[in-house]
Amino acid sequence: MTMLYKNVSTNDDSRNSVLVILTSAMLLSHQPRSGKSTEVDDNKIKALIESNPRYTTREIVETLNIHHSSVHDHLKKLGYVSKLDVWVPHELKEVHLTARINICDILVKCEENDPFLKRLIIGDEKWIVYNNVVRKQWPQRDDSPQTTSKANIYQRKVMLSVWWDFKGVVFFELLPRNQTINLNVYCRQLDNLNKSIIQKRPKLVNHKGVVFHHDNARSHTSLTTRQKLLELG
Q1: pTM of model > 0.85
Q2: What is the pLDDT of residue 149?
Q3: Phi-psi group of 51: left, alpha or beta (phi > 0 → left; psi -120 to 50 → alpha; rest → beta)
Q4: Helix, strand or coil for residue 150?
Q5: Short-list 162, 95, 153, 156, CA closest to 124
Q6: Residues 156, 160, 164, CA angle at the centre, nearest 5°?
Q7: From CA 186, how far away is CA 180, in angstroms rounded?
Q8: Rounded distance between C-alpha atoms, residue 201 and residue 210, angstroms
Q9: What domains are defined for the chain?
Q10: 89: Cα separation from own chain's centroid
């Protein structure tokens, strides 16, 4: 206190005023401050997250009355990270999950008794944007490169049909623009697929044959298609 009075007037009133100010400052420094706290028990945040993993940082701030930055620090310390759910086509009920498990068990047993996965050929179709622009060229050193326009972002899509097995693609076809899969097109594709299998997978043809898998589109399940598959073996 002697150093604090060094440059202060010796007047008693002035000295008393300084003493009051210093005393008030010391008392205020030991009192809890208003506003949100920066300290919180990790267990409280962990309990909130375990009770509801979808809690937002804003909700944690409001519940525990702490700073937003403190929430991020504690979550990082506890090993939590923010992740989005994975989209699925639809929610499966318990009966559907049970059915899938049973089917998987059956397939595993079939593979053990009579291996078929390496004989499996899968087919599917998909609309794609296809524009095979070739830009690379070999001009002379002093020649200027030719110009190539960029693809239109609103260009039309084409239908890609592809069949593959565990080794890779066996056969694919890009249909002409504005053409889709119908009964005649699919049967023609099956003939071309059979030729490709004979050429690329001769061992598959000479042994137990192909296990063919495709979806239940109308062109895949028609009587004509089934007769074509029986014809091709």
Answers
A1: no
A2: 74
A3: alpha
A4: coil
A5: 162
A6: 160
A7: 10
A8: 10
A9: 42-78 (1.10.10), 115-130+155-232 (3.30.420.10)
A10: 14
